[in-house]
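Form 7-S
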Amino acid sequence: MHIFKLVFSFKSKLKVSLVFLLISLLSIQGFSQDAGLKWSNDGKSYYTIQSEGIVQYTLPSNDADVLISKEQLIPSGSNTPLTVSYFTFSKDEQKVLLFTNTKRVWRLNTKGDYWVLNMATGALQQLGKTLPEASLMFAKISPDGKLAAYVSDNNIYVEDLSNSKIKALTTDGTATLINGTFDWVYEEEFACRDGFRWSPDSKSIAYWQIDASDTKTFYMINNTDSIYSQIVPLEYPKVGETPSSCKVGVVTIDDAKTKWMDIPGNPRQNYLVRMEFIPATENLLIQQLNRKQNQSKLFIAEPKTGISKVIQEETDAAWVDIYEAGNHYSIDFTNNFIWYNSGKNILWTSEKDGWRHLYNVSLEGKKEQLITKGAYDFIDLSYIDAKNGYVYFMASPNNATQSYLYKTKLNGKGTLELVSPKVLEGTHGYNVSPTGAFAVHSFSNHFTKPASELISFENHKPISIEASIEANLSRLQETPKVEFFKVTTAEGVDMDGWMVKPTNFDASKKYPVVFYVYSEPASTTVNDSYGAGRNWNYNGSMADDGYIYISLDNRGTPAPKGRAWRKSIYRNIGRINIKDQAMAAKEILKWHFVDPERIAVWGHSGGGSATLNLLFQYPEIYKTGISLAAISNQLTYDNIYQERYMGLPQENMEDFVKGSPVTYAENLQGNLLYIHGTGDDNVHYQNAEILVNELVKHNKQFQFMPYPNRTHGIREGEGTTAHLKTLFTNYLKTYCPPGGR
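Output:
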């Protein structure tokens, strides 16, 4: 790689002979494994955003040079450098795309302004200058480096970087006809945000079009920003409602004409969840899921004719999981297929043999091949070493609360080989350079602070011994406060859990227990990583105040325990997860140091729903509950999530009823604090009013705290976090008094 620097760039020689590890500990933005760290194409250096500008680190010396200084980021006519939130290089690394002035769209800041810096000339140009400020989304430079494309107000534009001429490739975009990006539910449930792809030859763009015009509008109410209420509309397909129509088209840059791909099936009864140009070809690979999400099909589509053909399909009695490589909370996450063998094959995940494994799928019709084998789950892909015939991936065959790097042969004939250091027991992560020469290795466990080190990837040796994680363990490790344990229920279900006992614990006394729950298929809570055992809604230390704090992962949570474990929850949300939690709690109540009269439970979102269900269905166990942002009635939630795990209410309504907390509200006996934001676009505030109505109907007394205009995280607005923590802590101390007795 060769990059031309402007003459006024200076070598800062910020030699990172200081401990690289400390950079991670100080949480400098540049070492985020999200948008902050970018590898060079040759894998011999990486770039980060720092106070000096964009800094390049050359390996293995790890010497630093300011590649792009703050002065280079000052636009003409301004005295202030751009504040860069995200950056990426063109394919030839001669241009840098800079994302600034960002604004939040649903979950992430995906709207803003884009600038391009020409590394050879130093020219800094703004894209889309004639379009509304901070309206550009997902800008990408074409493979040949001559053009940039982006979305603004649901239309796709292309801009010539030589003269800044802008051309609209679509013109029919509206609030409900969406080109090049997605509606709320596709983003929330499929992690689909960036909805267009450049062709390899830079002559066309493939894109999604979502027609949400028939999706009903849910109205939220803003009562605080004006003396008259304001409605906040949201196109939101509730469970049982027909999905938006979706199709894929390829638009030619020269004439702005779109050819639509002919994908069989009703576009309103199927989802198109993945789409990419097959490398070095003109064809597309597209993944389709049926509405129930229990059938997946892979199509190869020809943009010239629109003709498509199925090359692979899979069904599951519950649902087909979509593997999301990388961090789907990253703004540049695009759900790419895992290409292999020059685009002739992809690596594919499936649970068809009872475990989540990697398969080699040929695009040329050759027999599918199992790569990973055995009674363990593939967790995440780290690197494909095609030259030496290995695939590196995360797994944890022996402990579902942890994660390690393993490798095996790409031909499926290898054995499972542990790569992560045995001495570091816990949760590992890897950001591997494009060539596999180097990697950023991160690690933590429940008593070791998060740390990172640069390693030579092939032998996993740190580049700097003195800056390595192992050399600095003593300064990273704390006295363990969290205990991991297993509990077996009366039905024979083995569940992982963690526990934090009170400070100065006295086994001769009885203590209150606070259970933290989530329990649904979207997340686990029992993970051996730093932060386990902490309650961010509690003021002070629960241990110091005399609480036993416990969390458990039930069947149906996405732990690496095999398909049967995960998919037992199908059509059973609100029942099997609740029963498992309660049965495990019964075993814990047998412990001689537990006070069965002081048992509390709390959770947020799905955990808020579980809290309600536990309090209502098992009032003999749980005496106090704090529920945040809960789904009280499963019929109020979105169709993609709820239908994936519960089926269609038109076919099995009884499952939705039996799994919804509101069904059991009349059984409330203990103490309930219910909390919800009125501006929650995810789990709507109507859930609170539905539940309140039912509790009032049965004269059930409880406490209720609505937070005006706060969204699902309940964090916006001055004083919100402090207020919520105080409310949570005071309620818990009042109704589940701490301390041993």
